[in-house]
Amino acid sequence: MSTRTSPATGPEEQRIEVSGLTKRYAEVTAVEGLSFSVEPGVVTGFLGPNGAGKTTTMRMILGLVAPTEGTATIGGRRYAELRRPSETVGAVLDASAFHPNQSARGHLRIYAAMGGYPDSRVEELLEQLELREAAHRRTREFSTGMRQRLSLATALLGDPRVLLLDEPSNGLDPDGIAWLRRFLRSFADEGRTVLVSSHVLSEVQQIVDDVVVIRRGRLVAAGPLAELERSTRPAVLVRSPDAERLTAALRAGAHGAAVSVEAARDGWLRVRGVDSSQLADEAAAAGVRVHELVTENASLEELFFQLTSDDPPRPQGPQEAAGPEPAGTGPAAAQSGQPGRAERSEQSEQSEQPAQTEGSLR
Amino acid sequence: MNHVIKAEFRRLTATRMWLWALVAAVGFGGGLVGLLTAVGPENFDPPMPALESQEGVRSLLGVLGFTVFVPAALGTLAVTSEYRHRTATFTFLFTPRRWQVLAGKLVTFTAGGMVYGLVLTGTAALGLFGAAAARGATVGMDTAEVLLLLLRLAVTMAVYTLLGVGLGALIRNQIVALAVVVGYLYMGELILLMIPGVNIVYPLLPGGATASLTSFTYIADALAEKMSTDAASLLSPVGGGLLLAGYALVAAVLAVLVPMRRDVN
Predict the structure, then answer these.
(1) Chain B nearest C-alpha distance from A99 (Å)
(2) In what ranges is there compositional bias, type Low complexity (chain A) (predicted)?
């Protein structure tokens, strides 16, 4: 980081507290009764599908959007009441918020002057974010990655204690994402606060310690990611012409107490509490026919999808298409499945091969 | 507050817009006035009072009043470009007390508008006296009076910059704001002037106040003659100046107050 020493502040000075936050527009309620806190020293992921209210919430925390109800404070103060706002909080909300005809250095010098920081700080950040070579170029010529770094440089001018980033990995190449992860980790390890939003869990999964998950402007889950992970249970998808008998047999069987069965579509059942061999054995013992058996590896992504899906329980028989996509996930969404996970296979009936559609959150 | 003003001066000089503004000032000032002087107002169609008369000099320099759209547009851009390029987010993050941002812009762009006005009128003086000397014509107004008139025009430019900042803060959409500012200055008031009855308020409109401040009544008179209505009688130069300053004050207050509660999305 920088050579500047940060003001010594206690954790309570850096905690973000959101309480009963609500934002209503004429026809829609973007955020409703949202309460959570973001602790210093960890990286907190702010997750939810596009349109869930993440950006509006961040803008309310930063005093850019006025809440209809509720409060958002940083170290107990509303943003507008902070004594040295840019020394306390750095934020990147827009991927590209520069005048296209200004140079990177010109842009940074404006905000250095506004925050009262010396021009040497601008040079320091240009160096740190590897923008020195491009410093004299007009920002309209910048690539997405360079824009992201210039945005980050602007946010870091005041060497802030709290960092808020809205979808920072959008448009970053793998190197850029790796760099961002290391950067955020070291930032948090210094005892600072990091809130980073994303609609793609897998993008932030490796860097976040805590998560705040919202859907349609409301809180769905909050807490350490590890705890959330523990709450996921693998499931087995089974297709049987004797679904009712199978259900009864499983409930009466050796694992009956732990078993939960829910109906998927067209005779498929989703069974939790047993693995596929246990299920097959019990079916055989009960003389129930089983036509197909698929292990559905529980993933955090799955859980996230369930949490943020508009239509729980998730419709996801293997014959179905990718299931409801949260608003805004584009065609790019369905790319690059991760190998080794059988879930929501789009074409299994046709192709016999569980296809990958991580569709929901990509 | 000083930080904000320093930042706004840096913003003003961070692109080449200031350079184009100076080119416009020299072009409209030295260029236009020099050209009109070289041709001679008595040779215009319809002819205007000759350069040798006081009225002739006043009309000639008064033409500069038509170029107020340039500083007005610059002032408008000062605010609207922040919204257009989304830099308003960073700006209000660094300065959450938003009135300070607008106050900083008002200070910076009033100074910028004054510089524009002085370059405009300075080169206009060179154009006037230079072209008159080249033609061998005498300028029918005392040099001191010419300079005072030019100074009034320079102040007018600064005031219009301020008006532009105010309107830019009100109408954040860059295209709409520019269309309103330039459209009103170019056509809006002239159309009002043509409406019998409505032209009574003309002296109280920004254009009327500008006309009295710059003592340029040629257009108002000609229109009145053509429409065979009574010429709207303008305020005194001082009255016009005060009224224009009042408009600027309203614009400044609006510029400072309006963005306070608005959401920045």
Answers:
(1) 6
(2) 317-335
- For residues B111 and B105, what is the distance between their CA atoms, to the nearest angstrom? 10
Residue B220: CB atoms within 10 Å: 23
Contact A65 B264 (CB under 8 A): yes
For residue B119, CA distances in Å to B28, B30, B68, B112, B155 come to 10, 9, 14, 11, 12
Architecture of domain A11-229: 3-Layer(aba) Sandwich (3.40)
Asked if A111 lies within 8 A of B94 by C-beta distance, the reply is yes
Burial class (CB in 10 A: 0-12, 13-18, 19+), A80: middle
Query: Over the range A64-79, which residues count as b (16 or more CB within 10 Å of their CB) and which as e?
Result: bbebeebebbbbeebb
* Residues A10, B169: Cα–Cα separation, whole Å: 39
Place of tokens 């107004």: B141
Sheet holding A235-239, edge to edge: A260-263, A268-272, A235-239, A292-296
pLDDT tens per residue, range A64-88: 999 999 999 999 999 999 999 999 9
- Angle at B150 (CA atoms; ends B147, B156), nearest 5 degrees: 145
- Residue B6 at interface with chain A, using a CB cutoff of 8 Å: yes
B126 in Cβ contact with B135 (< 8 Å): no
ipTM beyond cut 0.85 = yes
Note the pLDDT tens digit of each residue in A218-271: 998 899 988 877 766 678 889 988 888 889 988 888 887 788 888 877 778 888
pLDDT at A4: 44
Q: How many CA atoms lie within 13 A of A232 on its CB side?
A: 17
**Residue A185: CB partners within 8 Å, gap ≥ 6?**
A43, A207
**Residue B257 C-alpha, separation from nearest chain A C-alpha, in angstroms:** 15
The tokens 């006296």 sit on which residue?
Answer: B129
Q: Please identify among residues 96-135 of chain B the ones whose CB lies closer than 8 Å to any CB of chain A.
A: 96-97
In the block, which residue shows the tokens 């309480």? A19
| Most B CBs within 10 Å, among A25, A81, A89, A99, to test the B interface | A99
Mutation choice for A interface testing from B20, B90, B98 by most A CBs within 10 A: B90
Stated pTM of the model: 0.78
Closest CA to A169 of A135, A140, A124, A202: A202
**Residue B112, SS3?**
helix
Q: Which residue has the tokens 């000062």?
A: B78
Token digits of residue A336: 């690059």
- B10 and A100 in contact by Cβ < 8 A? no
Q: Where do the domains of chain A lie? A: 11-229, 232-361
Q: Look up residue B160 and give its two tokens.
A: 């219009």
Work out the minimum CA distance from B264 to partner chain A, whole angstroms: 5
**Is some CB atom of chain A closer than 8 A to the CB atom of B20?**
no
The beta strand positions in A25-107, using DSSP E, are 29-38, 43-47, 69-74, 89-92
Integer-rounded Cα radius of gyration of chain B: 19
Token reading at A168: 């920072």
Interval B209-262: pLDDT, tens: 888 887 776 666 666 666 655 556 778 888 888 898 888 888 888 888 887 778
